[in-house]
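Protocol step 4 of 5: obtain the predicted structure for the target chain.
Materials: sequence only (see below). No template structures provided, no constraints applied. The aim of this step is simply to have a reference model before the mutagenesis design in step 5. Sequence pasted as it appears in the construct record:
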Amino acid sequence: MSRSGWIGAGLLLIAALLQGSVLPFVTGGRVPLNLVLVLVIVWALIRGPQPALIWAVAGGLWLDLLSGVPLGTAMLALILVAYACTIGVIPWLSATGLVAAVVTAGGTLLYTFLYLFLLRTRQLPGVESWWAIWHSSALPAMLVNALVAIPAFWLLARFAGRTPLRRSAP
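Step 4 output (structure tokens):
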């Protein structure tokens, strides 16, 4: 694995640790921020589907191992979202933080649906009330993740060493 691959895996581990242990205590559990999801979606917009799928596998594995849900739940949802977020995105259009915020908002809704669907199909307790989960978690998460996607886009574009505009040039 390349140096940037190790840095990406470490960044996703730190994001998963923050998301699962630090952020709930700092915010009192009121801000449903999914850092790993934001990083995977933004990376998909910056680098394209293949690198994003690698980040989705790594980030999903970290989330699954740290959260106690059945292994593969977050990973599968992240893989599908990472791929879906790159479909139909014109590379030169994805060069803005605003596009990253809009795509992240949509990706958050898709991720929440897929994650709840996967938990529901495994008949885990606490996933009975879909409307309550959508109302209390999915919609606020969509807004929070979209806001965080703007600075994340800027930081990851710098980390990639290029802007998305240069990626699409021949």
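Step 4 remarks: Residues 163-170 have pLDDT under 50 and may be disordered. The first helix runs from residue 3 to 27.
Proceed to step 5.
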